[in-house]
């Protein structure tokens, strides 16, 4: 087997840095779009549908683990094709309807490509997990070419986010094999979170109607 030289390693390191930068730029571009939406929405409707956002790049370590788990070939091209969540954006909204507003906003931006939509709100996972997942391709102008870079976007309410964060912690605390009775409790908690979301949505609609009547 041929030995790797220092130059080979340097070249690989540079390529990896450039590869990860592409994903970072895609997140930066989405961040700007989200900021525009927030400010414009505030101005037009006097309220902001987004509670908070979280942008994250997969660490090289967890990327390697996933490549290994998925059994895909270790090349930049193959990683790019098979691993869709190297760049992740999580948008936490105030109300249920805001989630679909965010989806619409992305769908209406003609330079974005929506590759996939997984609606775990209309079809929750058996454990109770809810969120809207979108796979987007974001145009990124590199110095010498245009790249469409994949970003996984998770859109959810505060209640969904609260549930998912705690479920994630419990899952890892029990080393991914959670006792049966806790699974049932978690599912019950997801149902309560969902009922709360629907109640808050009703209140929100009622308040919006009152506001509209007052202004007309
Ligand atoms: P991966 O290959 O693991 O990314 O799965 P996938 O491509 O089938 O994607 P899926 O839509 O199922 O989930 C992607 C991401 O959503 C995960 O990395 C989590 O951040 C989140 N997620 C999905 N299911 C759950 C869940 O049951 N609990 C929690 N807390 N998060 C979840
Ligand atoms: Mg994932």
TrEMBL record:
* A Pfam match: RelA_SpoT
Q: Which domain of life is it from?
A: Bacteria
CDD domains per the record? NT_Rel-Spo_like (cd05399)
**What pathway does the annotation place this protein in?**
Purine metabolism; ppGpp biosynthesis; ppGpp from GTP: step 1/2
Q: Which GO terms describe its biological process?
A: guanosine tetraphosphate metabolic process
Domain (RelA/SpoT) ranges:
55-178
Matching entries from SUPFAM superfamilies are given as: Nucleotidyltransferase
Q: What is this protein called?
A: GTP pyrophosphokinase family protein
Q: What is the lineage of its organism?
A: Bacteria, Bacillati, Bacillota, Bacilli, Bacillales
